[in-house]
Design goal:
The longest helix has 22 residues. About 50% of the residues lie in helices and about 10% in strands. Strand 3, helix 5 and strand 4 form a beta-alpha-beta unit. It has one domain. Strands 2-1-3-4 form a 4-stranded parallel β-sheet, sandwiched between helices. It contains 7 helices and 4 strands; from the N terminus they run βαβαααβαβαα. It is an alpha/beta fold and about 140 residues long. Bound molecules: iron/sulfur cluster (SF4). The site of iron/sulfur cluster (SF4) has 13 residues, from helix 1.
């Protein structure tokens, strides 16, 4: 199997129950679409867990960052269990401790504060992508 070294796989948890899960998905999309579109790829975590072999090869082919909403770390656990250990894990609830003035309330329409938090999380993911690829931005 070929190991792809110039791209990083970013796997977000699919949390619907907590604002942190929504933030992990939005932050991941920001990285994929805006911050590092040429350096990142993703998979659908539910499909991955449902058993597609193509999806499960993912973390064996790409170095992978799991992005989790909370300490249950569903993306990390699922990726490790079914494909390969993520190279790095970003946990939104941990990052939030650095920004106590930014509060989360909604799971649907993110407030201005939640959007700011999503950007902070996205920046941390992007920095980790750069570190994994050995690039300085
Ligand atoms: S990591 Fe937390 S927010 Fe994400 S799916 Fe699991 S329980 Fe939900």
């Amino acid at each position: 199997m070929t190991i792809v070294k110039d791209k990083v796989g970013v796997v977000s948890c699919s949390g619907e129950d907590l604002p942190e899960g929504t933030i992990s998905r939005i932050a991941t999309r920001l990285v994929l679409e805006k911050l590092r579109p040429h350096d990142t790829v993703t998979i659908c975590l539910p499909l991955f867990l449902a058993g597609s072999e193509d999806e499960r090869a993912f973390a064996r082919v790409f170095p992978t960052i799991a992005v989790d909403g909370c300490d249950k770390r569903c993306a990390e656990v699922g990726t490790k269990e079914y494909s390969g250990k993520p190279v790095a894990v970003i946990v939104v609830s941990e990052i939030m401790k650095k920004y106590p003035h930014l509060k989360t309330k909604s799971r649907d329409n993110l407030s201005a504060e939640e959007k700011k938090l999503a950007i902070k999380v996205a920046e941390e993911i992007a920095a980790k992508v750069d570190e994994i690829l050995g690039r300085k931005k």
